[in-house]
Structures
1.
Amino acid sequence: MNTSSAPAHTAARTVLVVEDEASLASTLSYNLRKNGFNVVSASDGLEGLQVARRDRPDVIVLDLMLPKMDGLEVCRRIRADSDVPILMLTAKSEEFDKVVGLEMGADDYLTKPFSMRELMARVRALLRRAGGREAVDDASKITIGEIVLDLRGRSVHRAGREVLLKPKEFDLLFFIAKNAGQVFSREQLLENVWGYDFFGGSRTVDVHIRWLREKLEETPAQPRHILTVRGVGYKFVK
Ligand code: CA
């Protein structure tokens, strides 16, 4: 997968900031604009969802604790029809379950307080990954036995029936299927599919592998395509 092709000088990207703390919201907007981004903002969860649907931002910075609708619910609803990268903001004092965040579709998270430099780095990393994903859509199809991956439509069929995959499940499947026969460690998969600074850790990979097996393997407990290589990681075989 070509992950280095995201052009650096395309038109300004739009960031949606959903944050109810007015001073933090304005600091975020100010710094994002200073770094060349367009910024749209919302101060509660419902408004955030509306703006996300209306303005189709390139990336969303989403606070966890918000009036009207919390960040996880906003995240879950956005994921129903969009792959837009989402960076969650959480406070140290808040209980934030990373696995729940992952299941709701967050791509990364930052704990308050954080530096603006850190935030910019995370936003840029998310945009780079999303750029790599778009490039992939120009290719066509991968067929493995009865499994067909349509890269353009980002859809998967098994024995003629569509299998609904979450965006990261698709990215992971595409990566291992494209490199069929090659063994990858969990760290390598994290780096290539999620990006090296992803928060979820290696358990994230195991969870997604399990979901993929449940959706794609005839007998998930005895997989034929998505194999565990003991002590190393995973590989895909045709
Ligand atoms: Ca808040």
2.
Amino acid sequence: MRIAFLGPPGAGKGTQAKLLASELRVPHLSTGDMLRAAVKERTPLGLQAESTMKAGKLVPDALVLDLLRQRLQQPDAAKGALLDGFPRNVAQAEALTTFLPLDRVIYFEIPVGELLPRLTERRSCPACGTIYNLRSHPPAKAGRCDRDGTELVHRPDDREEAVRTRLEVYNRETAPLLEYFRSKGLLSTVRATGSVEEVQAAVRAALGRRS
Ligand code: AP5
């Protein structure tokens, strides 16, 4: 199955993608995670993308498309993939149709007022990718990952100013994809408020999976 998660920054796409990808046994392909790994490893792509990401703007399409195409050639993506954070604009969506036509797009609908606190209070584990929230899902031991004890990080683009830019970019570049996918009959909308378990149930229902 080839699925994409669409929604504003902080809507909970990454949290839900980890759960669904493990259930469906397909890789969770987050272009944001791939780019952050490239930044951490100081690859040429990472060096090119770093300042753009920190400012909350989109990395050029060609770079992200190359990254995703290469990742999809790995054997684990042969049976499908769960895309998180891709496509981000109509040009990326059009390009995607040439190498990974989607079966379904899940849109995470959430009031904008919920996003800023979710992001400014997010912490994540740089080793295993587990996502925390200081308010709704804090780690058992402050500042440390429950799974591997690694020190948690606050993403540089989760500072308030970068979040505001990301929201503007989302409204301008990504929100038009709602109509794009709706017109193709691919879009399902889930309410992204409520607990992680409630949103997970809504995503499963949107995909016709029994609880
Ligand atoms: P990316 O990493 O894709 O970030 P994003 O889309 O802005 O999404 P986030 O990861 O911020 O949020 P999320 O929806 O995954 O929420 P999460 O589950 O973590 O992109 C980062 C940057 O990379 C971009 O700005 C761009 O520069 C670049 N980039 C990436 N892809 C690109 C592309 N295709 N083209 C060009 N550039 C690209 O949850 C957020 C918080 O809420 C967490 O603390 C979590 O614990 C909490 N939470 C989750 N669910 C709930 C719930 N139900 N109730 C309460 N709290 C919850």
